[in-house]
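Methods — Computational structure assignment.
A single polypeptide chain was analysed. Its primary sequence is given first, followed by the predicted tertiary structure written as structure tokens.
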Amino acid sequence: PMLTDATDGTYEFWAANGVYDLVFSKTGYTFTDADTADVQLFDPCEDVQTTSTGNVGTGEDDLLSYTMPANSLFLNDHVVRITAWGTTAGNGNSKTVKLKFGSTTLVSSGALAINAKDWKIDAVVVRTAAATQTAIATYFNETPTTVGPDYTTPAETLSGTVAIKCTGEATDTDDILQKGLIIEILNASG
């Protein structure tokens, strides 16, 4: 990390998103762990992807994905907001888009024979304990079809990494294209 100091005793530095214990020392001064332990640094826009990724043939395929680092949601009521979007091929094939948080499917479009339509998923996941969450997610397309809002209760252990991904299941390659994924960590102070 780059560190710069000012004449008034303030410091600026850059570090990757995460939880840190800062250590200060100065002759004649006392600093307590309570003032400098478990300091979270985060950029609310954790990840942005805009590379178009499609399904491959039949079966369920991973589209865009993100691995949320361990302890990203380190206190209850911390939130991850997920926005995903894409389009479908111009045919009558059955297509299913899902958003997954770890092993939990937050929302599934279900099998839809949508022809050249854009789609979007909005979701939020809230930490309720170290290994439990509450979530709400909605799938939309321009047909118009809306699935949800679907309420789920994931049970991911947040002290470890958590995979967040969209999957697509269809007939032909690129029946489903995911065009974007945004992950935002929205952690209230304290």
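Note: DSSP finds one helix and 15 strands in the chain.
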